[in-house]
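Morning - adenosine-5'-triphosphate inputs below, output right after.
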Amino acid sequence: MIAALRADLEIARRGYARYAAYPVATLAGLFTNTLFGFMRGFVLLALFEQRSEIGGYDAAATLTYTWLTQALIATVFIWGWLDLAIRIRSGDIVTDLVRPIHPLRAALANDLGRSAYHAVFRGVPVLLVGALMFDLIAPAGPLEWFAFFVSAALAVVVSFAFRFLYNIPAFWLLDFRGIAVLAMILSSLFSGFVIPIAFFPDWLAAIAHATPFPAMVQIPIDIFVGAVRGPQIAVALAVQAAWAAGLLLLCRVCFALGVRRLVVQGG
Amino acid sequence: MTVAVPIIEFEDVHKDFVVHRKAGRLRRERTVVRAVDGLSFAVERGAIVGYIGPNGAGKSTTVKLLTGILVPSAGRVSVAGLIPAKQRITLARRIGAMFGQRVQLWWDLPLIDSFDLLRHIYRIPEERYRQNLTEFRELLELDPFLRTPVRQLSLGQRIRGEVVAAMLHDPEVVFLDEPTIGLDVVAKQRVREFLTAANRERGVTVMLTTHDLADIERLCSRILILDRGRLVYDGGLEALKARYGGERTLVVDLEESGPALRVTDARVTRVDGPRQWIAFDRERTNAARLAAEVASQAALRDLTVEEPDIEDVVRRIYAERQVGRT
Ligand SMILES: Nc1ncnc2c1ncn2[C@@H]1O[C@H](COP(=O)(O)OP(=O)(O)OP(=O)(O)O)[C@@H](O)[C@H]1O
Ligand SMILES: [Mg+2]
């Protein structure tokens, strides 16, 4: 047990190191995220010239939302991740199968390490720039701060599981990219990444809330800006945890089916 | 007397691949490729077995069956008492596997980090890990590039790293699919010495595939030759040469250049000044008789006997099969 956790930790450390090896990429990403923070901030602010509140979000909350999403882009890794699909297609996946650790577990540990790096070098700096240039809202107290960090970590797990899942069709399909693109569009829309789900018409918001996507972006932000508070925070965290567990389980089942196809048909 | 239990067993194993090919606009043709066709063999603990055969013979498929990456279509596979396809992860701790065509090390990490990560994944005791690493580093001369990210290694450097990665956790048996691919002469020699040492000192059973017959000659106590999924030879090197490449060559240096000698039950294959090459079948004659015959015709200064070349032997086997194919 301890030894297994130690292995996870070491894998996570290497996941961190892998991204730390490309500082120029980090800098470029940081620059882009910040730039878009300004652009999106000004566009959304224009909405508040006519009204003072939309779905519980006022101008300050909306600005905070904008900068938080920019900080979470890399940390949660909303956009494309095809590492697994590429390994499946190239056949390199077979080498993962001869290791005494489940590839899902190894990939999760690796992604947590990656997200730690991105949180520190692509998340915090973006949020700091936003906080220096605009009046952003901060969580109400230490408990809210803590809840936010837990929520962000759960968001990473949900996002990871979803990404892992949309890579699995590569076991069957040559054109795995099509599915991945569709998945990315769905997740950036329904996660509340583009605009807060509170801005959606009710029917669309209801659809969004029936998917795991809000658990990737919207929930941690709601906790941060105080759109979700008190005991509701516990409910929100439970929803995230449930999605994380459910999706990971689904990953395991689908991955096993993929492996079965591989070992029977030879890929 | 104890009966040695084989560490690797193949019992009438078949592996079929179903391949779909486009035939016309909508129709897809279904063909079955039989990659392994009724293969049976057993390997004792502590052996070094060379596995050769022409391209597409089914060597890699066999290695995948042994590591549990493929399930047999029929027949029984057993490694270290386990069924690979059913107990893949349990087996993973006890075997080492290396696929020369694939990258198993972590692409973005320095070589040493890959090793360290393997230490934790395989839960290798610290002390054991240090000992192994120290020994392997020296044997395979890894030090100059131990801190280089794997993506920057040359093919030969990476392969050496992969071989070490397969051995760090003291496996009972290692399966190496082309472990000398892309290595220069010196590196090849090092890998061979490394495997010999691991086999002799640690008792690791080694099964390797290769296209370099020198690997077989230097390393293997036993050779399996595969063709179209069937075993066409299983035995030692000497017996192989005797059976398929019975021809030895007597090289004679004469005092003076002259025309090709006349010899019974043998033939002169080459003349180069005073030196002549006489090929003979040892079933029909022998070097002593030939030497006497040569000495009776010309003044003899020196002579050597050359064993049949394994390249020749294998070329002959492959060619024979090729003829049988049509
Ligand atoms: N996944 C697969 N799907 C379909 N056919 C396959 C698959 N893998 C191997 N084959 C076929 O099975 C046969 C044996 O392939 P294998 O890779 O085992 O050969 P090999 O002896 O390793 O050859 P090489 O010396 O070229 O590495 C070949 O005809 C190959 O085309
Ligand atoms: Mg092969």
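Note: Chain A is about 75% helix and 0% strand.

O.
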